[in-house]
Write a structure and sequence with these properties.
Number of strands: 27
Radius of gyration: 27 Å
CATH class of the largest domain: Alpha Beta
Structural class: alpha/beta
CATH topology of the largest domain: Phosphoenolpyruvate Carboxykinase, domain 3
Number of domains: 3
Length: 596
């Protein structure tokens, strides 16, 4: 039997652990505890729906749960394993006690179709335990078995389904649809001996790390929450002090956040959200994961460990590590908590190193007419920064020859003798489906992770930039504040520059925006420098940096101003960012002609 560790099945996910080779025969897929538990869940679903298909199981006890499946679930799994290789008549002879399930083979065929859809509706994870021979991280031998085993399992599940349907219906189909029937997220995990400073970090050494990840898009997830609320609180005590966790129930994803090394530890209940990080941040290599991290996030600590707070962070001065912690609760079952806590730690570290963190987006444009331009658009969630950049992409054919996203949500600026350089944190974007150009995200199904696409504030995580580009340092040509709440009039033009650093500090510092429902805020709100992820908690660090950088921008002749995206004005959600992008392009073209 290839699955040596117990599978985990919840109301929305199935996790299968593997330490050896995959099954070699389709029937073996159905000869597992996991298959029986899935069938029991399916029977329970039929009962909730009041489905007529439940009549097939009426001769056998069908009451049960995932921990103690019913006789009906066990016998049905046994029957399906036989139907992979034989007709209903032969199966009845081979297993007489299953004959009561075969009164109507066509009804069973319909149930199998329904069961297959039920299985594919789960979030399906396949966890491979790495062996000592898999440590050759950069070689093809370390990667190909991981990929092929995943493909083999998918093929076996699909083959089992097709052969059962053929034997029940008496013929093969004439149209085949290559549905993704196997795992849609697979991870190669290994316990890695990293440079642990001891103390409260010691227990983290036992937690297995993700070395490789494989996604089968489109991945569609259904988190229990669809927005973020509350704030990240700085605390004086390390949240790891006094914390006890079970390493067998936790995993770690080591990632690069810009130039920094991070270890993201999480309770397995948050597996889907944590795995989505690989579409947003660069996954660390095997050797990189051994390095002492700059930041550590522990997601899913027991309720009450941090008092009444749900999200806290702390700087361990002695060990030079920024530590964040998020409580285990349905209230934080939203990807934004992972992303924003990681970025809060990043920003805290960057301020301590003299960099100015920026909550916004940066794009490098090569115009058809004129030089390259590095444009930074600053704004809090829903201000229109990402949407304006997407408008750049839509307008690219008419205005620009090349476009590179340096960061799409959070970055940092470095002041040099030659000007200001921008650095990114993420290789991807976590954006609202509602505010993207229609069809854009769905045109990238082959890379996307969708979250609650049927609900308000539906989100998609899309990889957009190579890691090497976000850390090389890109010259900044213009810094703009994304004003999403003011209409465009003669006195409030779509695009304007500030003449003095004090004007910029006032507008950027106020951080005004119309809330878009991405958090629990409503109406016109203000956030310190549009950045509640570090700067707002540590103004004593941020204030002198902001003054230094905005003064430096003026001295380096880097324009600083604001662009009215109008994303928060009803009816302007699409036109506002597009017209803002067009205004920027027109300004750059005029400037290029003057300089040319």
């Amino acid at each position: 039997m290839p699955w040596n560790l117990p599978g985990e099945i919840t109301d929305r996910s199935v996790t299968i652990y593997m330490t050896g080779a995959v099954c070699t025969q389709p029937a073996q897929i159905l000869q597992t505890d996991q298959a029986v538990k899935v069938i029991q869940s399916f029977i329970d679903n039929l009962r909730e729906r009041g489905s007529e298909h439940l009549e097939v199981f009426e001769a056998l006890p069908s009451e049960g749960d995932r921990e103690t499946p019913s006789v009906a679930a066990q016998k049905f799994a046994q029957l399906l394993a036989l139907l992979v290789d034989m007709t209903p008549e032969d199966a009845s002879v081979r297993a007489p006690d299953c004959k009561v399930l075969l009164k109507d083979p066509m009804a069973v065929a319909e149930i199998v179709e329904d069961l297959y859809d039920h299985w594919r509706a789960y979030e399906r994870y396949l966890m491979f335990e790495a062996s000592a021979d898999d440590s050759r991280d950069s070689s093809v031998e370390g990667h190909m078995p991981f990929i092929y085993n995943n493909q083999d399992l998918t093929s076996l599940i699909r083959e089992a389904y097709r052969r059962i349907e053929r034997n029940l219906r008496g013929h093969w189909p004439r149209v085949y649809r290559q549905t993704p029937g196997g795992a849609n997220m697979s991870l190669l995990i290994e316990q890695i001996n990293w440079d642990c400073p001891g103390g409260p970090y010691e227990q983290l050494k036992q937690i297995r790390m993700v070395r490789l990840a494989l996604l089968v898009p489109p991945v569609i997830l259904y988190p229990r929450r669809n927005y973020r609320q509350g704030r990240f609180v700085e605390v004086d005590v390390n949240p790891l002090d006094g914390l006890t966790i079970d390493p067998a129930k936790w995993f770690c994803i080591p990632v690069r956040v810009g130039e920094l090394y991070f270890h993201v530890y999480f309770d397995r209940e948050y597996l889907s959200l944590a795995v989505s990080l690989v579409n947003l941040f660069e996954l660390s290599g095997h050797d990189e994961a051994r390095v002492r991290p700059d930041g550590i996030l522990v997601f899913g600590v027991p309720d009450g460990h941090m008092g009444h707070e749900m999200t806290v962070f702390h700087v361990d001065e002695e060990r030079d590590i920024a530590v964040g912690a998020v409580v285990k609760s349905e209230e934080v079952d939203y990807f934004g908590y992972f992303k924003k806590m990681v970025l809060t730690l990043h920003n805290t570290i960057m301020m301590r190193r003299g960099r100015l963190p920026v909550h916004g987006a940066m794009v490098q444009l090569r115009l058809r007419e004129g030089p390259e331009q590095g444009i930074v658009i600053v704004g809090d969630s829903g201000a229109g920064k990402s949407e304006t950049i997407e408008a750049f992409r839509v307008l690219a054919e008419d205005w620009i020859s090349d476009m590179t996203i340096i960061f799409d949500d959070m970055g940092s600026l470095s002041l040099t003798d030659d000007g200001i350089l921008g650095y990114g944190t993420e290789i991807g974007a976590f954006v609202r489906l509602d505010d993207l150009e229609p069809g854009y995200a769905f045109g990238r199904f082959d890379r996307s992770i969708f979250m609650n696409p049927q609900r308000r504030n539906a989100r998609v995580v899309i990889p957009i930039t190579d890691y090497a580009r976000i850390v090389e340092g890109t010259p900044v040509s213009m810094i703009l504040y994304a004003n999403n709440y003011e209409p465009v009039t003669e006195s409030t033009p779509i695009f304007e520059f500030f003449r003095r650093p004090e004007q910029a500090l006032e507008v950027f510092g106020a951080g005004a925006r119309a809330a878009k429902g991405t958090t629990d805020e409503r109406g016109l709100v203000h956030t310190y420098f549009a950045n509640p992820f570090g700067p707002a908690q540590l103004p004593e660090l941020h204030d002198p940096l902001a003054e230094k950088y905005f003064t430096g921008a003026v001295e380096a002749d880097i324009p600083v101003g604001q662009i009215r995206t109008r994303l928060g004005i009803e009816g302007k959600e699409a036109d506002g960012p597009r017209e803002a992008a067009e205004a920027i392009f027109r300004h750059l073209v005029r400037q290029a002609k003057r300089e040319g």
